[in-house]
Amino acid sequence: MARAVTPRRKALVTVLAWTIGLALFFPILWTVILSFKTEGDAIASPLTVLTTPFTLESYHVVQDRSNYFLHFWNSVVISLGSTLFALVVAIPAAWAMAFVPGPKTKDLLMWMLSTKMMPAVGVLVPIYLLFRDLGLLDSRIGLVVVLMLMNLPIVVWMLYTYFREIPGEILEAARMDGATLKDELIHVLTPMAVPGIASTLLLNVILAWNEAFWTLQLTTSKAAPLTTFIAGYSSPEGLFYAKLSAASTLAIAPILILGWFSQKQLVRGLTFGAVK
Amino acid sequence: MKITIRALMGACALSALATAAFAETTITVATVNNGDMVRMQGLMDEFYKANPDIKVEWVTLEENVLRQKVTTDIATKGGQYDVMTIGTYEAPIWGKQGWLLPLDFPASYDVDDLLPAIRNGLTVDGKLYAAPFYGESSMIMYRTDLMAEAGLTMPAEPTWDDVKAAAKAMTNKDKEIYGICLRGKAGWGENMAFLSAMANSYGAKWFDMDWKPQFDGGPWKETLTDYLDLMTNYGPPGASNNGFNENLALFQQGHCGMWIDATVAASFVTNPKDSAVADKVGFALAPNKAGVAKHGNWLWAWNLAIPAGTQKADAALKFVEWATSKEYTALVASKEGWANVPPGTRTSLYENPEYQKVPFAAMTLNSINAADPTHPTVDEVPYVGVQFVAIPEFQGIGTAVGQQFSAALAGTTSADDALAAAQSLTTREMTKAGYIK
């Protein structure tokens, strides 16, 4: 029986939800506000910041100094490329783990996840040397491979959780009708799992978009995504808050918009398997 | 058929030759984001006019990201960069490692014109490994109006006692005016740059000749106690989070009576566009403790160097030569005025009567000349560097010690505990690294 929701309780929960939501969103909002201020105003005390005039000065400077579209395009290629590549590898892997688990499947899954716990800098030098010898430094393809490997455990885990909710009998029925393994994967499982795959894809695009260790270390100019674009606007000697905020706003805008339109899938992706 | 193939191959060969004739060499230059470097990116047309066959690709990064990236690249000989912007800290270490190419400039470059203090810090075994793009020391910037109100005059070479008296007289916490603003944010290039230089002026040092840390000695205790005393009584609130930029903003908005920091700041605080106190700033040499021969001023330069892994050494050298030449200085002066030329690298700049009119020129030169990276302390020490120790381990150690001192400023630990922790952590790291047998 559902618990009766009193109006008071509803109001309380609404206020709480809004407070948490605003608290989480506040840093982004503040970044956007600072991006429309002059350098001097941006570093002033918070109350003064709100009363000073707005200006597009920082956006002009950022536009003049950097090639935003090059960085933007690199970010798109790298994040989308690495996610699609990861899906191609992860769908068969998750299928095997969900429908034909062996005695060590759980251990394997845990081991995959444990690789995420290693500090990335620990493998920086070996990967850098490999990239140097393969000529992959400052190349988009190199970053696609590295980010694919970085996010693969998460992709496999998400798909695995989703696939487990699909009744195995459906696949069995397909097999009875003479479907080969390939048919089963492509024509039966994948279409049924589209919502799960979509939310996995979205979440991983966001993760790859925000990745700021490998993208900074392995690129210089040609393949440099938006993380490098932002990193160019912090300065040890000289005020930079407004320009850095403008660069950050430009860098997060596309992913913020994508997130806004795909909220439903994202929330579903993050919560499936949680409530049974 | 054969003829077609031959014709095609011929055409290919021809076009390959044609491309070779117009081949451009593209060099990648990694640099920090500061005003002088950004200005140079806007003046590149002049370089291209003289060198139509060279194209420069810029990679501008935040200081710490840049340091991490170029270190990885140079240590693995990754060859991603042809010219790197490096500090006075890296130049001697990397030069010694054989990671940088020695710079052999033509006579017209006039190497002897480089300021001796700066040049010495970039030279290893008689070879210059990096060319200074701009140099800086530290000095006192103070509010002339507040000093006059307090009935004080700033001596040209004040002692720490003078500074303390002035800070006390200028502080008016009700009006949010704090006598002195100093760095408090933890980091080897943040609070430790200031405190190491201040310690030199108290006769303290990081290590003795056997590389034994000296935080347990009297001079360091005096340094830290006086620093904490100044900052708790006359400093702004929350100073343990303040670095260069935070203090710059405070000073520009009129909240600081004095600020001891990089000479580069002089051009910011005297710029009426950003600074509310632009016409009320005076300059003085960084202080010393009465009777100690060393002043508390550091020495730093951002330099251009060529990594040993580059395939384009000739083009890279041409660029470095242009960017650090007298002609470049003249170019900036003609386009943006003398106050905007990169300071602190050449004697000829300070002999120029036009440049002497810039209000902070003389004090910048005096401050740079008063710092000697090869003899930074009163006693003899085994290391080079004024506000740092030019050994690879220093970044880690300096930041860890800086965290202790920053905590002492925030009030979460005492000066004695911070010094004891600094002593033990430095001893541990230096023993691990093999300096202490």
Automatic annotation (TrEMBL), chain A:
Membrane topology summary: Multi-pass membrane protein
Chief location: membrane
This protein is called Sorbitol ABC transporter membrane protein /mannitol ABC transporter membrane protein
| Presence of the UniProt keyword NAD in the record | no
GO biological-process terms attached to the record: transmembrane transport
Enumerate the UniProt keywords alphabetically: Cell membrane, Membrane, Transmembrane, Transmembrane helix, Transport
**Can you name the source organism?**
Rhodobacter viridis
Record-annotated ABC transmembrane type-1 domain positions: 72-262
The subcellular localization recorded is: Cell membrane
From TrEMBL, chain B:
Q: Which Gene3D superfamilies match?
A: Periplasmic binding protein-like II
Quote the protein name from its UniProt record.
Answer: Sorbitol-binding protein /mannitol-binding protein
Compartment annotation: Periplasm
Q: Which InterPro entries match?
A: Bact_solute-bd_prot1, SBP
Q: Name one GO cellular component term.
A: periplasmic space
> Signal sequence span per UniProt?
1-23
Keywords attached to this Swiss-Prot or TrEMBL record, sorted alphabetically, are: Signal
Note the CDD domains from the entry.
PBP2_TMBP_like (cd13585)
Q: Which family does it belong to?
A: Belongs to the bacterial solute-binding protein 1 family.
